[in-house]
């Protein structure tokens, strides 16, 4: 676990990040790893001297099983409220099939030709989404979390902006897997055009509101020259679009 207070980051078994925020009498999670990350999450919370039953809110950035996989078990344990955008909530709750969405990405289209692979990708514990969030909604959690809809990776991808503290949880809308900011992997994204627009929109918003800690869906957190690095990333996206 890597800690940059007030954020603790757990790296899941498939490299997706799970963020744990300790508040006085509750614990808030941003994303929930794969189902097998459950133990990692429980042990990490215990190592902070806290109990996983204190989890009160689980904010999911998108439906992918490496981000929503443990939400069902954690909700059962703690009765935490689960949050996701309504467009991804349908898949998280199981009323819409994930393969329909995967089929729009390049790798997704390839795997959709192999039904067995599709069913493995789509198989993860369903969980009820208690709160369906919308773009620009302000959630009364941790003093105020702003929802930034960021479609492209999945239709209902969102980033969560803890504006008061200058901390952003981007999900896979912007990742840091190679120690520099990148867009999500095209093969697993529904529209790279939308993903580019969403990444630029996120940078525009944090540029105005302030940021010091960037918490990506994959890769290390960034707490140095954060805005400058995001602006450089946006520049790379916009310059490419011109060509
Ligand atoms: Zn993803
Ligand atoms: Zn991911």
Beta-strand portion reads 15-25%
Q: Strand arrangement, largest sheet?
A: 1-2-3-4-5-6-7
Radius of gyration: 17 Å
Instruction: Give, in order, the helices and strands.
Output: EEEEHEHHEHHHHEEEEEHEH
- What ligand species are in this complex? zinc ion
Shape annotation: globular
- Counted up, domains total 1
Q: Major sheet: size, sense and barrel closure?
A: 7 strands, mixed
Distance separating the two termini: 41 Å
Let me know the CATH homologous superfamily: Ribonuclease Z/Hydroxyacylglutathione hydrolase-like
CATH topology group: Metallo-beta-lactamase, Chain A
Could you list the spans in which at least 5 consecutive residues all have pLDDT below 50? none
CATH architecture: 4-Layer Sandwich
CATH hierarchy, class: Alpha Beta
Structural class label: alpha/beta
Q: Which whole number gives the mean pLDDT? A: 92
What helical percentage do the residues reach? 25-40%
User: In total, how many beta strands?
Assistant: 12
> How many DSSP helices?
9
Question: Mind sketching the topology for me?
Answer:
Blueprint lengths: L1 E3 L2 E5 L5 E6 L4 E4 L7 H10 L7 E5 L5 H4 L2 H8 L2 E5 H8 L4 H5 L3 H6 L3 H8 L8 E3 L4 E2 L5 E5 L8 E5 L4 E5 L20 H18 L3 E4 L9 H17 L1
Parallel strand pairs: 4-5, 5-6, 6-7, 11-12
Antiparallel strand pairs: 1-2, 2-3, 3-4, 8-9, 9-10, 10-11
Helix pairs in contact: 8-9
This protein binds zinc ion (2 copies).
């Amino acid at each position: 676990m890597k800690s940059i207070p007030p954020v603790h980051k757990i790296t899941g078994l498939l490299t997706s990040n799970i963020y744990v925020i300790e508040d006085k009498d509750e614990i808030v999670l941003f994303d929930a790893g794969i189902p097998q990350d459950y133990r990692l999450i429980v042990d990490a919370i215990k190592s902070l001297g806290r109990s996983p039953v204190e989890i009160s809110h689980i904010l999911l950035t998108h439906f992918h099983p490496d981000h929503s996989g443990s939400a069902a078990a954690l909700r059962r344990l703690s009765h935490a409220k689960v949050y996701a955008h309504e467009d991804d909530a349908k898949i998280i709750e199981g009323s819409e099939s994930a393969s329909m969405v995967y089929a729009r990405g390049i790798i997704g289209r390839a795997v959709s030709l192999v039904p067995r692979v599709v069913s493995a990708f789509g198989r993860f514990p369903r969980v009820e989404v208690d709160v369906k969030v919308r773009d620009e909604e302000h959630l009364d959690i941790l003093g105020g979390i702003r929802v930034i809809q960021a479609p492209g990776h999945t239709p209902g991808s969102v980033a969560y902006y803890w504006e008061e503290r200058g901390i952003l949880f981007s999900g896979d809308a912007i990742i840091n897997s190679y120690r520099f900011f990148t867009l999500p992997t095209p093969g697993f994204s529904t529209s790279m055009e939308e993903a580019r627009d969403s990444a630029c929109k996120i940078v525009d918003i944090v540029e105005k509101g302030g940021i010091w800690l960037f918490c990506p869906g994959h890769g290390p957190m960034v707490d140095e020259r954060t805005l400058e690095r995001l602006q450089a990333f946006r520049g790379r996206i916009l310059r490419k679009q011109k060509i």
